[in-house]
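Hey, weird one. I pasted the Syntaxin-binding protein 5-like isoform X2 sequence into the form twice and got a warning about non-standard characters only the second time. First submission, copied straight from the form history:
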Amino acid sequence: MKRIRTVVYGRFGESSSRGGKEDTTVCERLRPQDFAVSKSFRYGFPHQPTCVAVDSVQGILAIGTYTGSLRILGRPGVEAHVQHEGNTPVRNLRFLINEGALISTCPEDSIHLWNLRQAQPVIVQSLRFNRERITCLHLPFTSKWMFVGTEKGNIHIVNIERFDVSGYSINWNKAIDIQCKTHPGPVVQISDNPIDSNKILLGYESGMVVLWSLRSKTAELRVACPQKSLTSFHWFNDGKQFICSHTDGTLSIWNIKGNSTDTLCPNGKTSKETRPCAPITKVQWLSPSSGEPLILFSGGTTKGKRKGLTLCQGKTTKLLSPDIILDFTTILSSPWKEDAQIPRAVIAVTTSRLLVYDLMTSLAKPLAYDVPYTFEIHESPVTCTQYFSDCPPDLIADLGSLASRLKKRNLTREASRQAWPILGGVSGEQPEKPPSELIITGHADGTVKFWDSSSASLILLYKMSTVKLFEKEKGKSSEESSDSSERKPSTSEGSESGERSSQDEDPEAYSIQMIHLCEHSRILLVAGAAHVLVMSFSMNEKPVEFVQIDLNLTFESSHEQPLSPEPENAFMQPGDRGSTSSPEIPSHTQQPIPLPSVSCKTGMFKRHPGFQAELACVISNSHDGWPVSNISLSSQLGIISICSGPSLALVDIVQKKLITTLSAHEMTSLAESPSNAPPTTPMSAIPMTPGTPGTPISLTLNLEAGGGLDFSEATVNKLEKKRNKPPRPAPPMVRSKSQAKSGDPPNGAESSEGGAGSRQRASYPSSGDGGPPDTVQCTKFAYTYTKKNDNWISPCLFVGTAKGNTFIVVINMPSAEERLKQPILTIITGTVFRPKSGLIMTLALLDNQGHLFPSPLKFWSEKKNDNSSNKTVLPQECSDRHFLVTITEREAKVFQLPPAHSNPNPYSKTAVADDTSVVLIAEVIVIEGSSCLICLTSTGQLMAFSLPSLTTLMSAECSFLLTDFRYLRTLKFSEGGQAIVMCSPYEIQKLSVFTRNGSSSDSLGTLFRALETPEKPSQGFFSSLFSSQASPLDREQLFGKESGAASRSVAERMQGPGIQQLQEVSIGLAGAMQKNREALAERGEKLSQLDKKTAELSLNAQNFADVASQITLKYKEKKWYQV
């Protein structure tokens, strides 16, 4: 049933019906079938890498991680990310060279075959061993038989085409000497002889190395290393000798006759003694085109140092990298082992970097390649993000131009000039209208980075550091840092003196906790735990005055009692200090913490082009307090809001002055008991122009009781007529700074004549129920109705608190001519919305058609005399209704504006979380012109609702977003249903909840391309004539059906999702083929009928011709009159 309201407005008691605001129905175009969660690009270095493999023919690289993920890289812009089920670590990776397939092993003793010939690689086959644990793999080139070593010392052979186990196996008791009475240990490595494929080399952990003959099934050579250990070995390309690495940091070289030719200790030799070294984990022995053989190994450094990557050639030993090398591989000139193994590059993975060294230019001093992938996101830990899926293209272009102009010529290491060796895959098709996407990351070292994420590659556009804006003096007292008026301006540029570091500084003092960028006005807010920086964008180098404002936002509770944890408090990671300042994770139940002491370098500085700091708001830390929990900006109003626990500060960024400070307790008391509001002065005593220009004034006004401050001429005249009526509750009050210090009662006459100061408190009382104080959770600038039954829209600020209240702070802006002179007035109204279901997570405003209202903003212009920057926002009359969307930790409600009474009923509402969960993330976004609410609960449910009806559009299981709750602050949604999240400390994952955005697989490209396999090196006539090499090995005959079948209990075959897809495709193909066969049969029948008809016509034509010939002969000699 529709509600009809009639309210009297205007001059002389004019009445106007407000029913028209409710009759219009909102058309919602979003449909549930268009919503689904999908992953697209993943940026950054793989977290916790374990192994690496390379296909030198296809030119692709694969990196396995501890969490079970695989990153497969081709040329820049061509890559794929896949995940094993169960998130188990990846132990081994082997490419099927030039076959478009990859084999991986996991700790559950499973072998997985990945198909790389499609856009998104999938598992085609899996083989799980039941009795033995897999330790190593070996797949000879161009062979379909793979050797699998186990922990028990046995070797099994697997056919990778059928993915079954051969009956041929090598047991450990047959490989070792009969006189040996001990187990040789697990199989460490398996490798076939480069010259004779009949012979393979088996290495055991105890130091036993066995040369096994596949035909005779006997051991031709057994070598017991004196080091009693073995970590790896590698054949030389002549097939006559091999090198072994050991746990004592030594290398031993052996020939196939069992004689040790040499023992090396590259990093342990000194002039006097041999120092102990760390174990060598992997070794490779290569033959370059010129010079002596080349030995590459990881580890082997002296104890106490990190195990790095070392290169040895002759008597020269060079440490390529001192970092911890987890695995490495080399790119060779030919995949055939019997050919000359000319190394082109060596690829190594560390815990946080990918290292690629050029071995073609100079072996004496190998140069490192500049890695073209975006692997430097984690140079400093990412603490917060912001994402724009529809960023203005000119902003990205300007940031890109600054990157080229400001690039410093640092004297760093020389990079290789050779072409990047990983150039596999085929680039995807680029869309006709490429998107314009921007990602901003804040880091723990105080840096802010801007990335272009419009394609599969993440491009760094611009980088700036905020640390240089702060003073780094040792032993500076808090009184010095809090008094900005006595601070001496620095005479040098901040970028010069800001590079000095102090050991006494708090490492988290300059950590970036929040970022807010208005992409249209190009005003950037950067917040730390105790400071907020305001920066404006400029393409020119110019002098800028940097001002600091100290905010006294301390809180002293009169009730000292332990706080009971709320349900959402259980999701916070212990020791995660940054989470206390996150707006997504509730912090109203936390105790105040010691805030870092920071002080800025104020004064006039010449700033480089880009974002230039103009204002710093610093929270005084004389007592423990709350860190900055929320920031918001209205570029058109020129105001920012800073939330810190129970306090809220409004700052004028145009005049660079504090407007006012508010508390959640004061707003709650005013809404609950208007009669208990502080005494105020008469309405007539309010000066619209204070005596001291530029001094902030705060007004506290009770609008629930019918009084108020309206901005129309009709309302002013109406208030004059109502003065003779019975007295109403207390009108507004003007407080001066002198009164706040002396404690004198407010007086309207005195405050109208004296200068008014900022309303900063030293303490706030606790909540009335003796519990924890109410805290400000979120704010939203708007241009809407501020009173019940109102027909004027004006600039205001919506404030959401932890106890579920939503308040309105009216902002009275001066005229455009007086904007730089007159202060901004704020009025706390009694209008309050109470969802009564927990703390307020997010607030949003919608217009009459359900379109999202952004905060009042302006557009950026480099011109100083731009007329748009002088415009101000004044109240104006409006007849359309608005909607207020409030999302709490339990439910979502939509209220209609203006409200009909003090406790309005919601326009629509829905439960988002049940009794066992809470809402962790809530954002209102725009998808194809329609508003949509996205919520993530603590149970991993990602839900979407249409606005303003709150109709459910999607409810998907997204538990992968809750793997680490510290990453929740980096989950950001943007227009079009796009989102980003830090899926690990090193990686950014891009998501999509809307299916009509288009598939990103086309732009990813494909990893496989059809290439010819390099030809086997030809053998000379005399070499083949006098060679003693045996005939080629027939592996099919040796390992095939003639060898028998292996026991079914050895391994179990499982089909992967790729087989199911192939079956579905094959079923479709089979149906299509059947239809084609039926069509061909029908066509054949028709052709046969056509042949018959053609034959009949031919016969009839022949008969006709014969008859015609006979008639012609009959009448040939007759005259015409004889016929």
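That's the output from the first submission. The warning seems to come from a hidden character in my clipboard, not from the data itself. The chain has a mean pLDDT of 78.
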